[in-house]
Amino acid sequence: MSSMIGNKLKVSIFGESHGGAIGVVIDGLPSGLEIDMNFIESQMERRAPGKDSFSTARKESDKPSVVSGLFEGKTTGSPLCAIILNEDTRSKDYSYLKYAMRPGHADYTGHVKYSGFNDYRGGGHFSGRITAPLLFAGALAMQVLENYKGILIGTRIKKIYGIADNSSFEENPETVVNIRSMDFPVIDQQAKKLMQHEILKAKEEGDSVGGVAETIILNIPAGYGEPFFDSVESKISHMIFSIPAVKGIEFGQGFNITNMRGSESNDPYYTQEGNVFLKSNNNGGILGGITNGMPVVFRTAIKPTPSISKLQETIDVSTMENTTLQVSGRHDPCIVQRAIPVIDAAAALVVLDLIMEREGEIFFNKTKGDI
Amino acid sequence: MSSMIGNKLKVSIFGESHGGAIGVVIDGLPSGLEIDMNFIESQMERRAPGKDSFSTARKESDKPSVVSGLFEGKTTGSPLCAIILNEDTRSKDYSYLKYAMRPGHADYTGHVKYSGFNDYRGGGHFSGRITAPLLFAGALAMQVLENYKGILIGTRIKKIYGIADNSSFEENPETVVNIRSMDFPVIDQQAKKLMQHEILKAKEEGDSVGGVAETIILNIPAGYGEPFFDSVESKISHMIFSIPAVKGIEFGQGFNITNMRGSESNDPYYTQEGNVFLKSNNNGGILGGITNGMPVVFRTAIKPTPSISKLQETIDVSTMENTTLQVSGRHDPCIVQRAIPVIDAAAALVVLDLIMEREGEIFFNKTKGDI
Amino acid sequence: MSSMIGNKLKVSIFGESHGGAIGVVIDGLPSGLEIDMNFIESQMERRAPGKDSFSTARKESDKPSVVSGLFEGKTTGSPLCAIILNEDTRSKDYSYLKYAMRPGHADYTGHVKYSGFNDYRGGGHFSGRITAPLLFAGALAMQVLENYKGILIGTRIKKIYGIADNSSFEENPETVVNIRSMDFPVIDQQAKKLMQHEILKAKEEGDSVGGVAETIILNIPAGYGEPFFDSVESKISHMIFSIPAVKGIEFGQGFNITNMRGSESNDPYYTQEGNVFLKSNNNGGILGGITNGMPVVFRTAIKPTPSISKLQETIDVSTMENTTLQVSGRHDPCIVQRAIPVIDAAAALVVLDLIMEREGEIFFNKTKGDI
Amino acid sequence: MSSMIGNKLKVSIFGESHGGAIGVVIDGLPSGLEIDMNFIESQMERRAPGKDSFSTARKESDKPSVVSGLFEGKTTGSPLCAIILNEDTRSKDYSYLKYAMRPGHADYTGHVKYSGFNDYRGGGHFSGRITAPLLFAGALAMQVLENYKGILIGTRIKKIYGIADNSSFEENPETVVNIRSMDFPVIDQQAKKLMQHEILKAKEEGDSVGGVAETIILNIPAGYGEPFFDSVESKISHMIFSIPAVKGIEFGQGFNITNMRGSESNDPYYTQEGNVFLKSNNNGGILGGITNGMPVVFRTAIKPTPSISKLQETIDVSTMENTTLQVSGRHDPCIVQRAIPVIDAAAALVVLDLIMEREGEIFFNKTKGDI
């Protein structure tokens, strides 16, 4: 039961890196939602490899085909399935990895869990490539949130290998949308250069780096989420840790809140023209697991790409002996910029599910069908 | 659908701070498990308030009564329900909080979500008190894991208001168990004094502080968990963010891994006598969402107790005007030490669920009943 | 994972016949619903034993205590837990049943599943007594459906031991409600006498009989339910087969529809004043798994009470030898009339869940809390 | 949330009759299971239309492509997705059905639920064609049950339009398997002729008939299932009512048990060589929701195919006026024989889920992968 998530909106992803196809089934979408495939493809394009020197030169054809759930450009209310055929897979690149376990990857844990029957080629179902169908589903959710609820989601690179962009994200809501059009979404252009420098340096050395992404969800009203087990933090973190390479998440001030006094960290309320606001957003828009009307803000720690060209110590599971491994082929010296649209998408799926949990299938004022 | 969690082992908590009772239903426990109520009560005692000057002087009778699912000291296989009656609740303490929303608490978000019908007394269902039944369920899971699988879980205070205990936790496995007997579980005694000093200082000023807890799960074999949506990180973070006041979680090196190169963060494998080990544990015992045989290590950021005696700005939801609020009564100047056994318990519930997902209801070699 | 059901409205029952208490947790109820406990208790009274000569003389105190989720007579939105303490249990009546498996009961299957650790006294968690908390939850749902949606549910005895009441139920909607006030809810008084005669005859002979219940759900609009796995029939049947002793269910014409031609069984549509009606209701108000606006009609087959006084052949699981068994004590010669309010309640839970799936937590126009 | 089912083994179907493709995702399959695609295709062939005069002449290419989860002939443990491309769909046949609601079909209920946005062509997602991917998943489960657990499932036609086959099914276990090779699986050849005669008579008149299927599950041991909400009857009925046209289900003696006394319907136990047996099987192999070691037996009522050539009264949803409708094109005069392998498959999915619930992912002794 590995690959399904959601309460009202159920998302199920499938596929292996070098299998016939990868894809996603989205079950529970209301009917009558207009879907703009161009928007979805533009988001998927952001994740696609081979665009510049900061990511792998490997090309993937991430063109999705919708085979169900869409009729005359609108959702039918039945499960929507999108499929991406696998191409340019070069299986022979990976054959030598059948027994030598790549450190930092899921090779060994997958080998144990699946008793050696997993498809080891390219990481199989553990491959970052499987985030493409997740991105598809989430980009669809993003446009539904924007068009029907006015909710905007954006993610920027906050840090790469210790280089931070200290400019404010939350206080510039327009950047939340603008940032989506950047290939390397950093606000402070000076920090951007330093980050890219670190990536290229690591690349030259056959090594890799990671970083921190910061996400903001704007215009989500107060009252969504649940106390305890379906807290907004619980649901978002569950989803975000599904993305390969994520090792940490924090909301609002996050770990830094432990350096504050309660009198500082408590966000004071005030009213203006009958509306309720908070003077600060240390809690990242969530109190008691429920949105408070402020932007939801979270940061995600993404580890250095485990695929590196350097010689590494490992084991051979066929002989159960120690060995070394040098992963040849095309690698991402940094995966953070490609993970950004996946995080956007993942967050959008959670928010749409939250809304549907509260408002049901009929959460938006749709006009009736063509009759 | 706020208060249920788990795939195979379903835990459902109920109750409000000042209602008739709080409790928990655990559904899916195998039959024939011997339960030592003394161990459970000793864990609950760790959370109980009123023990020392670092927590509130309020007394709570947290004595649980098991009303089903236990027969002659062993689980029956039917849902196990434990109930804790509410006493010493002093409802009048809270009456003035009906309309004035306490900053940092769930008063306002609960008010919006439940349209003003929530039980506002003492935070109602949002109260930290509702972690007592969660702790009950988790302490039960802890002893099942220890007795039937040899899996040990322990949590220590890593940081309070910036004061860190830099001694190693992971490398001293015996402390994982020993630390449970400490009221204030810090390994480095010098750090402990400084932390306690900070708490008392905050208390004197009517303020509060938070901190970071570090949890270690020992002896969990490789192969548990799932790729993507039921990754071990996903399941643990989902559960941990259910605990009030948690604002961040990280596994292994966590956020610090973004300061490393891939060649450093990748944990190399080696074999010894046919067993597989890793030379480091930067990934916190989890790769691709699945345990790798190393200890699972995570850290939890806990915010300063939102209940403080200082004057705070807020709103009155009956008049929708700005107002100020001074929360009288007995507060915890720091909640971290009381949250420690709750984190242990929460982690235990996840681990038991992971094991049952893989091994079913018959995961242990139980001897047949008395016939 | 035995005892939870529901998508949006989750119901979890617990307890054993002779344990400390039985009860139910209802998770997902919207806040602000006015609950009339008298109505709930009047429904529970209908199931209570000891009322007349057609059921067991055993008395049970089925008085429920609500310990959470209700505040000032309205739901809080948090889990609502109701508890019924066990009294008058006479454990010694059952001690000889520890090893001798009663035919027709779950003694043997429970013994195998739980490896002999189940609480055998009075059937433990398998006892019909555990339907009391289910009835509590369902009676609560019934009044919510009536008060906020105008949906009415009623169940009558259609058949006892081959004696049928051939009067129409569906065409007399007022009887749907009136029938609830009858102890032995049969419409045709002549059939009623014959049925009761059969029950008493069986009782005299230490034997038992079963029958068929017919349920009607009025005023449920078209459009609820799902194609395939959450069809209305799927959800109702799943719930109804949870009630002990149920062996069959059919919707509309049910099994009899297999004796019809398509031209007869297809229910023709017609419109009147802009509304859509069907000229017949052979499909029992459901097409493609979704309500069509007609009354939902189903019939439930209930087997003869397995507890009889006659000598029966069985096995002793301690010696694994053949033996005989004579069940002494107080038995129900017929359980159908006591099952009637449980079926009502079970159906109500499904309907409320269907509505909340579609319309969310905010399915009714509630007035805001007292501010 | 229409189209997913299962606790441990999750099955998700998608597709519309005239969309791009239909398919299924099976999530939770253990790794290393050998899959024989020929067996699956032979089962799918049984459902395929166009074989003889008893079903529609319409041809469908039901050739499934497995795009994930299978590697070198064995399951990988990752989600298995199979896709069937839609061909020979003749969309224009259905264009006139956009507004005229076919009686007995889901046209109207789908129209209401999806506000007119559903894909009306050929019934869209409600089409019986969507049972093809369900059958795929279930046929896979059937062979896993047979090969790894020795559990056999077979379904026969018990009745067509009142003509019954009174020969015993349960007492001839070998027929359980043999019957699968029959196109029209009736045991009594005389009854078979009469049934086929009725079908052809209805066909000539542009009408249709239905019938009753009887299913038997052999060699399922005692102890599977749950009390109350996951009773075996609950799970099987939930699944079976997902199949279009099903209007009733009964287990063991089913509705007939209401004509028996308790002393007749209780199945007596006896032991022989340390094993436990029952002298009769009135309860259909299930007591208290749990298997008792006897064959699980159930019967399913299938209504006459709603598609008939006769003139029918209905409404036009564009004008909201009364109209008449004559459904042209190729119809099944009887759908029962085509539903038989779908029922087999559906039952197999439930049984495999039951086993995995109890025994986990590692329920069978698999040999390790090729290392």
UniProtKB/TrEMBL annotation, chains A, B, C, D:
Belongs to the chorismate synthase family. The keyword Amino-acid biosynthesis applies. Residues 46-68 are annotated as: Disordered. Its EC number is 4.2.3.5. Keywords: Amino-acid biosynthesis, Aromatic amino acid biosynthesis, FAD, Flavoprotein, FMN, Lyase, NADP. Pathway: Metabolic intermediate biosynthesis; chorismate biosynthesis; chorismate from D-erythrose 4-phosphate and phosphoenolpyruvate: step 7/7. The gene is aroC. This is Chorismate synthase.
